[in-house]
């Protein structure tokens, strides 16, 4: 199962060293499906670095996650929450104990006293209204506070009159009464969190409470709230600069937050399981829940709106609006090289294709295509890469240079790298020469990796893939929308629009409701009906046109940013949602309603500043004129202030102008004068001063600020902080205390009110800490509620109807796609001199430096910044050791271009002891060009040295924090669900059929959520990856894990699929539906494969060139599939292995075994493609499974199987010579068989297969000759021959042909010498053998052409004496070809019968053979051919000949040729005499006589008494009709071997003996072991010399006694796989003996000829030996070595 158990409980891994553990059941409710749900608190545990260990290594923090779970999920994950019957134990009910030590009667008296005290306090408050509170009132309140501290009396203080009393006390103007109210609240809240929350909620719901609270009372309530929420949502925003939120706005946020949490609790309580306390009708319960959901959504929208404004996200966000995320699957990893700025789709590009050459898709196999490319490719042709290979990518084009026999064999000059690189044949597509290439639109076959890698563009989006495509994404296919629903707003869109309707005041609200009623048939609209309205889109557009004129500024910003306005709003506004345009339009009527002639304003800095604000700016100029007119009346100023509250942009522009350069002194003084006057008005304190307070701090910190401006600024800040201490807290948060201290130091303390302002700011340190903590708690609580809504959306599949939910997520995810790393802030760096050393500024090496060259003050460094990057910190690295080269004064300028660098940003004096000089910090404006000017150097130096430059980019965002929380909650939810689904599958495998629909529902839910709410691809990909890893990975791990019977659920399902595959062809059958479900499941599981992390840039570079060594570990890391694919391939391999093993066990003796096996293999191959697609990992698993099934066969059965395959290939090769349709059918069957045989590569069965194939191939080559098909077959199945003997056989034939050509030249040379030596040339040429003078019979056989075979053997002595033969022959000299066969590669059994030319061949043939022997002997003496000891030829009976018999051409073997030529001299000959003359075995002679005496043959065999075997004579032509002309094939048919014969048993004996030798030697060397090369040499030496095994035992093997290094290596790998031998982890080439797992192998003879009974219980099989890497690492634990030869 997923996860692990801790104290018999399920523990979910949430990340590295992070786990979640179910701790407590909090509450219970009835879900939307009617089933009970339980809220479980999961504790988040962090492990230490040691990882494993006990509880001492676990740091239990207060982090927790609340998760609603179903019954099944509780049963699968939370065992301790179940009773003995398996039922969930409900939430524990607190039982009230005894009321402390108080007696009930005493407690009742005290409750009566409390009630009377409350009444008295309320009466006394009314009596002293407006006067100084009397002492009795204070005493009464003091006594009440004492009673409130007694816990048993808490219930009495829940009386509503207590809240009235507290409200009156908190709103009292007297400080002592307010202080006493705080004491009472603290006493009540000291008991439990529930009481605290209830008090806070009750007080916060009072109307306009914040207007009656002073600073201290508000802080008391805020501190109470901070204490209540301290442990609820422990979330850290460390490193993120939170905005300064004043107490007034913070208190409003607290109210909203408490209201939302209260409604959420009511929602959960309303869904509690119905019982005795809830007897309402279901309709009433449903209506109540719908009302609460609407109220909760509106309250949550209000909270998000205010929080966005408090965090100033709405002002910081770009005015371009949110960009739409590309529509693509969030589970598919994005291309690493893809440009995120590209559009999701692009027009089909044109690509270059060849007019002449065929693409790879037109070939059945890769080997056939490779042969085609090798044949057609010429030097200078253009080629394209079809797949990624090391340094060359798919789609790269280049020019073919050359090829050779190396690996890889093809050299291409690639345009992408500018140099040559070697690749394989099958990786290339031929484009041809330039005249052969044409540009065409991208075709279907180029939608693969080749084009995607070549063109670097995004693939077509998933929405346009056909549903029948294998890798179509089923969970994101667009669902069919209901036509009626498409004409109306969705509920989420309507509720978002309803939010703004509810924000309207009375008259405006009624007008909008009137519009609704007119369009909805006059229906009376109440809240319940409003929530369920189906609003047409046309009506929504009318409402969106009417709303903007009725909303205030902040609500209007929300409207323009919401989704419903962007989707259905006016088209012009939707394109540019910059609300000042709309505000300007709103201000037009107001302006026209005033004075008709436009007001003329003098040209002042203030007017120029306000020109960019539009009509609101002119309103502010009117305000300034009113303030300047002596003593302005409050009634005159109030309208302007109310207008500024609605449109605060001019006010914020005014305050932010204080951050402008110090040269703007008149403007600064004017601004400070206006601000000083505004502070005196109460309405002005409601303006957003805090949003622009950082400009005041910039002016305060600036060293160039004029003293008069600084003094006026301190006056203003002092008055503002005195008027509202909230802004003193804001100044404290901004670091005003240190700034004021530095200003006092600079001006020698001559700043009035500066010390008082500093003390005032310092006293607010505690409040500043409280504000920061509250901001963190509220933001963390909102994030937790958002995550809770996402989890509820996952569980119920109901839409999220909360307004601004996407807006909140957009701001939380802000920075996920625009965050710039530190070294990516600039585009280029320019220097004033020595540009070749400019790179030393950014190499992060403090020992290197850039040194200038020029006059004093002319040195500079220019940074060209990336678009939009705000500098967080710019640092210059210097070194004191540079002495006079060290900078002394540095000035930083900024500008929009290189020609406008006139804005001084900072100037710094560098101390001689400095090493890091901070030049800029926290810029709030983007400067495209930043220039650092070194004005002066230390000690009057001229040139300067700079050691480095550091630029920090944007500040940290909320995205990392939110990503961690989102992924943590998602992982917990889906791992719990995966555990529950796995439990269902474990109990009933048939539920696996429903897994596809379950997964589709979950993945579609996440996809739709990401498309609807997440703003960019990075956030969506993070969610998709977490969901996939948490849900699919554990499920795949569980369904692929075998149970106690050794069968996994998915393995069982795949077995069922294979069994009913044939029946599934009927689309109406149940089997078709079953198969469809299985395919949908497997398609879904394999369609995503997470990309592996690229190798580290610091990794050692791999060697280049063709002789580079392969780094298998790095290859496995780069090409290793995900755990999902790995588990699936392992399961598929096990299924295939079982299928193949079952087939082999039942069918291995059948006569048609090979065709049936090929059919079975291709059926499995087709099933693999149906289930998993053309993935290399599953094709490899298929081959490994087939190999595993073959490895389970006993040796003799495996030898029989290999012989059957060799026989089948031999029959198909010979049958293909027929030609026509039958020959083509044979070729097709041969191709299918060869694809199946490739599995033998690397297996032990390959050795026996090579043995039989070599034998049959030798008979073919010597019987009918070689053909192109032999080479093509070896090219395809070459890896199946470990000793490469068939390849050497073909090579020896090529060598024989070359020798034959040389022999022909040699004969001509001999002829020329004889002509020069002999005087009487004609007489000697007529002196042929005596046989030529005789006239033969009319049916005399004449030799036309022949091919003989000779064995080249090593000899130590001289060649045998040859008899002299004449060079001439009477008549046409027959053509003789000699094949020189080496016993090292040709079968020994085929050449053991030698031929004596003196006795068995006529003189004219004997002379040719003698001359060839002489030629061969002489050729051995040449240095160029001196390859070892001298060899001599030993003639054999192998070969073939063509004889002329009348009008017939007889194709016969060498033995048959000799027999027929022998009959030229004799009319009849006995078989017995032929045996004596030839020395052949009776079987071999009978095999040759059989075809000659058949109906097509020229001989008759007559049996005569006294003559064993009969007599042969030439058949009379009149005896029976036969063809008189044409070719007659009389070559003896192929003789096939039997693996069960003595030869097969000898091979088995040899293998067992080798295994015993290996084990014995490794046992002798103990744990140290032997290097594999040493072990092979020792085994071969012992095999040849003895004494182990005894030489008599080796000799008993007969023909199986030969042994090579390949046989030893095969046995070694066999023992490794069996577990008898092991490799050392640190020395993989060192082997040692391990305890074997022995299995009795039946039907084996004893290893000792003198003993009886079976062999020792050893069963061996080899593991795969591969000559090159594969795309994926093996899915099994197969042992292999990379270098053996």
In words, what does this structure look like?
The chain is α+β, with helices and mostly antiparallel strands. It contains 58 helices and 33 strands. The strands form nine sheets. It has a five-stranded antiparallel beta sheet with strand order 1-2-3-4-5. Strands 10-9-8-7-11 form a five-stranded antiparallel beta sheet, with no helix packed on it. A five-stranded antiparallel beta sheet has the order 13-15-20-17-18, with no helix packed on it. Strand 17 and strand 18 form a beta hairpin. The longest helix has 33 residues.
Characteristic key phrases:
33 strands; 1685 residues; single chain; 5-stranded antiparallel β-sheet; disordered C terminus; alpha+beta; 58 helices
Task: Give a brief description.
The chain is built from 58 helices and 33 strands. The chain has 1685 residues and is α+β, with helices and mostly antiparallel strands. Helix 8 (215-229) packs across helix 33 (765-796), helix 9 (247-270) runs antiparallel to helix 10 (282-310) and helix 55 crosses helix 56.
